[in-house]
Amino acid sequence: MREHYDVIVIGSGPGGEGAAMTASKGGRRVAVIDQDAEVGGSCTHRGTIPSKALRHTIQQLASDGGATDPDFHDLMRKADGVIRSQVQLRRGFYERNRVDLIAGRAAFVDANCIEVAGVNGGRNRYRADRFILATGSRPYRPPDMDFSHPRIVDSDTVLRLKETPRSITVYGAGVIGCEYASIFRGLRIKVNLINNRDKLLSFLDDEIIDALAYHLRESGVMIRHSEEYDRVEADDSGVRLHLKSNKVIHSDVLLWAQGRSGNSDAMGLETTGVQVNERGSVVVNASYQTAQPHIYAVGDVVGSPSLASAAYDQGRFAATHALTGVCEQSLVEDIPTGIYTIPEISSLGATERELTARKVPYEVGHAFFRHLARAQIVGRTTGVLKILFHRETLRILGIHCFGSQASEIIHIGQAIMTQPGEANTLNYFVNTTFNYPTMAEAYRVAALNGLNRVM
Ligand SMILES: Cc1cc2nc3c(=O)[nH]c(=O)nc-3n(C[C@H](O)[C@H](O)[C@H](O)COP(=O)(O)OP(=O)(O)OC[C@H]3O[C@@H](n4cnc5c(N)ncnc54)[C@H](O)[C@@H]3O)c2cc1C
């Protein structure tokens, strides 16, 4: 190991990986520091990958009419296999690109030097011309809740459940809460989903929100809106969640899924002049520079959109700026949202609510999955693709999809919607021949449905 690098990246999640690969391919000496034993970040070990692998295993089990009381350890074994493959792959990227991997927890000594505390107690200092923070985020834990109790878990520790509970209360109906409510309901256990707000995922299009609430309820999830946590009691027999409305929800396990905090604490940032807001998010400009121009921050530690997909791109953009002083691309905007509830959701661009508020003359085209041959063949007829377009120019303004493969289907529309000028047109879907039968055909059906409304 050297003591001085061109670029030091802290964190080996998608943000750190995107930054490190760009910097090393740009010919710089790069080191990546991570406190975890393996590369991949919380994305690979505690977030995206394990939750999606678990979801897939449970869905497969359900469609095979599988075990009625599957062991949670067995379910996680599949996820462990995927995690191992991902780690191996990602470690190979670093080795091939001659990026030094340093194990330990990094903290700034001053704005140009960090100290890394290794697992064996050793401490080493490293200096760099540029630093890129990609330290991610962790579940927010209210101070009055005892997370050492085996029945109280968050999205990190839920993956270490010893056995499959018979019932679970998910507190917090954001993306992670809704996903885990679906996943556990897929195991046919009793699920309570407690929402602080009066709607689920209020940033989505209303029709999609309604579809999600309907299908979660229909699958058996008990949703309670506009509720607030008061206190929790846990013992050997279960957990009792007391709500401010005086309701008491009993279950085997409580999954706290309310909020996340940026991993910006205990990193000596106060010695550097880097600013952090009240949610622990590092404040950056459009080029991902902090108040110290040679220190960049990307991914979950800078806050929204808190997606692996965005983190990777932010890492690439920040490293490009760090290397060249410019980056054409900037903050990630207009990126798709993929929500892996069952059924899944994906959306891109404006909702009807936003277009109405902005007084944009738009029209809607729908394609219901139950009308598509491919959906009928594969038995996935629950779902809809909805295209919002300008009624005069036919420019696509928003795409919203609910149903199986929604997070894949969205990208077909994205390819057209992100075209410049007149190339972004609904007509593409009418004038292009699609394979048949496919789910992609939904675009043609939705486009024709929408055009019928403007003729
Ligand atoms: C349950 C769940 C499901 C999710 N599902 C999806 C999904 O389907 N799609 C999607 O796009 N996103 C999803 N996300 C979000 C996604 O995981 C994050 O947006 C992504 O991991 C952020 O990447 P990152 O590089 O910013 O940080 P992370 O992946 O969090 O990696 C940060 C790394 O930095 C390390 N670190 C922190 N502090 C230090 C320090 N001081 N010194 C050394 N190392 C340090 C951490 O240990 C970690 O290894 C999900 C998240 C959760 C929790």
Task: Offer a concise description of the structure.
With 455 residues, the chain is α/β, with parallel strands linked by helices. The protein has twelve helices and 22 strands.
Compile the SSE list and pairings:
Layout: E1 4-10, H1 14-25, E2 30-34, H2 41-45, H3 48-63, H4 72-96, E3 100-103, E4 105-110, E5 113-117, E6 123-133, E7 137-139, E8 152-154, E9 167-171, H5 175-186, E10 190-194, H6 206-219, E11 222-224, E12 229-235, E13 238-243, E14 248-251, E15 253-256, E16 260-262, E17 295-297, H7 308-324, E18 337-339, E19 345-349, H8 352-357, E20 362-368, H9 373-378, E21 383-390, E22 396-403, H10 406-417, H11 427-431, H12 441-454
Parallel strand pairs: 1-2, 1-6, 2-3, 6-17, 8-15, 9-10, 9-15, 10-11
Antiparallel strand pairs: 4-5, 5-6, 7-16, 12-13, 13-14, 18-19, 19-22, 20-21, 21-22
Helix pairs in contact: 1-7, 3-4, 3-5
Bound molecules: flavin-adenine dinucleotide.
Descriptive notes:
The protein has 455 residues and is α/β, with parallel strands linked by helices. It has helices at residues 14-25, 41-45, 48-63, 72-96, 175-186, 206-219, 308-324, 352-357, 373-378, 406-417, 427-431, 441-454; strands at residues 4-10, 30-34, 100-103, 105-110, 113-117, 123-133, 137-139, 152-154, 167-171, 190-194, 222-224, 229-235, 238-243, 248-251, 253-256, 260-262, 295-297, 337-339, 345-349, 362-368, 383-390, 396-403. Strands 1, 2, 3, 4, 5, 6 and 17 form a 7-stranded mixed β-sheet that branches. Strands 8-15-9-10-11 form a 5-stranded parallel β-sheet. The protein has a 5-stranded antiparallel β-sheet with strand order 18-19-22-21-20, sandwiched between helices. Strand 12 and strand 13 (238-243) form a beta hairpin. It is globular, with a radius of gyration of 23 Å. The protein starts with a strand and ends with a helix. The model has no long low-confidence stretch (mean pLDDT 95). Residues 10-16, 33-36, 41-43, 47-48, 51-52, 105-106, 134-137, 155, 176, 263, 267, 299-301, 306-309, 311, 338, 340 line the site of flavin-adenine dinucleotide.
